[in-house]
Design a protein that fits this description.
The complex is a heterodimer of chains A (304) and B (330). The two termini of chain A are 42 Å apart. Chain A is flat and about 90 Å long. Chain A is an all-alpha fold. Chain B folds into 2 domains: 68 residues, no CATH class; 257 residues, MetI-like (MetI-like fold). Chain B is 74% helix and 1% strand. Chain B is built from 12 helices and 2 strands; from the N terminus they run αααββααααααααα. In chain B, strands 1-2 form a two-stranded antiparallel sheet. In chain B, a hairpin with a 4-residue loop joins strand 1 and strand 2. The longest helix of chain B is centred in the first third of the chain and has 43 residues. The two termini of chain B are 40 Å apart. The chains are: A mainly alpha (304), B mainly alpha (330). At the A-B interface, helix 1, helix 3, helix 4, helix 5 and helix 6 of A face helix 2, helix 4, helix 5, helix 6 and helix 7 of B.
């Protein structure tokens, strides 16, 4: 590794061929092998948690899987059996509410950034704000929605509600959707826009008929990843959507979600509840990994 | 396209006479309205980001107002958390937040950067590298609450003999001065390592790939080994991107809630020992916010404000560092 090697032997007319052969006992080659092994060990250590977590969740949760588990309510503390049906529906409802808010707002904001003002001061400010917002801890989103919606009873005098949980998750999704829309629209070739404007299309028609469809796959990829991330979030939900041991009672009542169920049941001293927590982890992880792999598969089309 | 047609048509006719091919069609007013409306709508939607940020700041500030006026900076330096006597100090939680995230970073940075090097170099076949990269990215997709569950029931029981041995042999160091009795700061640090590893690996990999190949070729050309090139040329060239990634990971680690809450033990008693239960700001929020009322909510909001400021500073620094990199290589 040291750059100062011995000067070339000048007394010999031609160099010896043996110096061209790899001498693995040289110090620098020893170090080379050592670092390679260290990097390999680090890579294995980095992948190990995924293998272990997935293994445990799939084995422990997968063996519990049954129709009853997916369709029944969780049992009262201390009793056996039951399922996580209400939590599965709750996760879908809350994530849906979040998507319905975050996707239009995020795509609209992204359109502004990429189509109307690429480098204006307001666009720079929004980009900066998006980055800051994506760094805000998810628990702070929960605190924000608690202060804004739950404690003020904004929705029909209800404090904790599925709606509040959905809004909290949408705050979390928003930066992801804006960023992916912005990036995806920037990748659309400028010639497409010129062409559309040149044959007399308005800005609105150009964006909705030409650039947005051209950027559809990367946007969809980002949105699916954002939804998958939101579906697994717990921190913004524990004091907005709260939890409910019953079936969902509309959007304006507390609702059970799988992530909060895992959190609540994992620290209970009952075997049945802990088993349900593993089962919910299984369902949640399978859903999220499926969404991730789906997004990756979608992403392939973007490159082609 | 109609070049020949132009000459044919125009010549016999007066120039000002309107011709279907060339007449300007005025855009109908409703089209202009839609166009303008769409632009305005997109501006409104874009400004929601700013409104949300402002809303978060105002909500937390106004919620914390009462506690700020009562405690001032004493809140940060004292560590009694007494909901009955309404006396609050968040030092334990702030210390916990800093110590867990920084120690997690110390472990995760070599692991993450090493992994990134391993999957950007051609040491193993491409498909295997891509598989490793995919696995690390999927690790980022696992919800933190699931990692917490795994930490409670699998990781912590497995590690407990190890941590106990740490206490037995290194107990004279204040950091290991209590016995490991289950949940504690050390397992929380380890689960944080698992959570921030994917971020560090992904950003390090991107920065390493951005280093121009000429640098490596030049290094090989003067006769260095592979690791000579990596350690002396490629890593220094990528260091600002990696630093940005590390800062982002630090911000993520400080705000990370669920897995830490489930495994850290949630104790407000200050202890130097990493084996004792502790608290972070986010775990304190997760645990107490739902049941708190009155003045305690205000104290928790104050703690949330401290967390926000910490993550904000770290994230803005990270953005600044990352921007410096993009100036360098594009």
């Amino acid at each position: 590794m040291t750059s100062t090697t011995s000067p070339l032997p000048t007394q010999k007319p031609s160099f010896s061929r043996s110096s061209l052969r790899l001498n693995s006992s040289l110090g620098r080659n020893r170090w080379n092998q050592f670092f390679t092994v260290v990097a390999a060990v680090f890579a294995v250590l980095a992948v190990l948690p995924l293998v272990l977590v997935l293994g445990y969740v799939l084995v422990k949760g997968g063996t519990l899987l049954s129709i009853r588990l997916l369709t029944e309510l969780p049992p009262p503390p201390g009793l056996e059996g039951g399922g996580i049906g209400n939590a599965i529906i709750g996760t879908i409802v809350v994530t849906l509410v979040a998507s319905l808010i975050a996707i239009p707002v995020g795509v609209g904001g992204g359109i502004y950034l990429a189509e109307y003002s690429r480098s204006g001061w307001f666009a720079q400010f929004v980009r900066f704000g998006t980055n800051v917002l994506s760094g805000v801890p998810s628990i702070i989103c929960g605190v924000f929605i608690y202060g804004l919606i739950v404690s003020t009873r904004l929705f029909f005098g209800q404090s904790y509600s599925a709606m509040a949980g959905g809004v909290a998750l949408s705050v979390l999704m928003l930066p992801t959707v804006i960023k992916t829309t912005d990036e995806a629209l920037k990748l659309v070739p400028q010639e497409l826009r010129w062409g559309a404007i040149g044959i007399g299309a308005s800005r609105f028609v150009t964006i909705t008929r030409i650039t947005l469809p051209a950027a559809f796959t990367p946007i969809a990829t980002g949105v699916v990843l954002g939804i998958a991330r939101a579906a697994g979030e717990t921190a913004p939900l524990i004091f907005t959507a709260l939890f409910s041991p019953f079936w969902a009672e509309g959007l304006f009542n507390p609702i059970a979600t799988m992530s909060v169920l895992i959190f609540n049941f994992a620290i209970m001293p009952y075997e049945a509840q802990i088993a349900l927590a593993w089962a919910a982890s299984f369902v949640l992880v399978v859903m999220i990994l499926a969404a991730n792999l789906f997004a990756r598969w979608l992403g392939r089309f973007a490159r082609a | 396209m109609h070049g020949s047609l132009v000459v044919w048509d125009v010549l016999p006719m007066p120039l000002f006479e309107s011709n279907d091919l060339f007449s300007l069609r005025r855009r109908p007013p409703q089209e202009k309205l839609v166009d303008q409306g769409f632009r305005q709508l997109s501006i409104v939607l874009a400004s929601i980001v700013g409104l949300v940020l402002l809303g978060i700041l105002l909500t937390v500030l106004s919620g914390a107002h009462q506690a700020i006026t009562t405690f001032g900076l004493r809140f940060i330096t004292t560590s009694d958390w007494d909901p009955v006597g309404n006396n609050y100090g968040a030092f334990t939680a702030i210390y916990g937040t800093l110590v867990t995230s920084i120690l997690a970073l110390v472990i995760a940075v070599p692991l993450g950067v090493g992994t990134a090097i391993f999957i950007t170099e051609n040491l193993i076949p491409l498909w295997l590298r891509q598989a490793l990269g995919l696995m690390v990215e999927l690790l980022a997709a696992i919800p933190s609450v699931v990692l917490g569950l795994w930490a409670i029931f699998v990781m912590e029981p497995f590690l407990r003999p190890l941590l106990e041995a740490l206490h037995v042999y290194l107990g004279w160091i204040p950091l290991f001065s209590t016995t490991a009795q289950g949940p504690g700061v050390a397992p929380a640090i380890l689960i944080l390592v698992v959570m921030i590893l994917p971020i560090i690996t992904a950003i390090s990999r991107d920065s390493l790939q951005q280093v121009p190949p000429e640098l490596r070729q030049a290094a090989y050309g003067v006769g260095t080994t592979r690791w000579g090139a990596i350690l002396r040329v490629i890593l220094p060239a990528a260091v600002s991107g990696i630093t940005g990634g590390v800062m982002l990971a630090l911000g993520r680690a400080m705000g990370e809630t669920m897995a830490v809450t489930m495994i850290i033990g949630n104790s407000n008693n200050f202890s130097w020992s990493l084996l004792a239960p502790g608290n972070t700001i986010s775990s304190m929020l997760a645990n107490q916010f739902g049941e708190a009322d009155g003045f305690q909510v205000s104290a928790l909001m104050y703690a949330a404000l401290v967390l926000m400021v910490l993550t904000l500073v770290v994230n803005i620094l990270a953005q600044w560092v990352v921007r410096r990199l993009s100036l360098k290589y594009s």
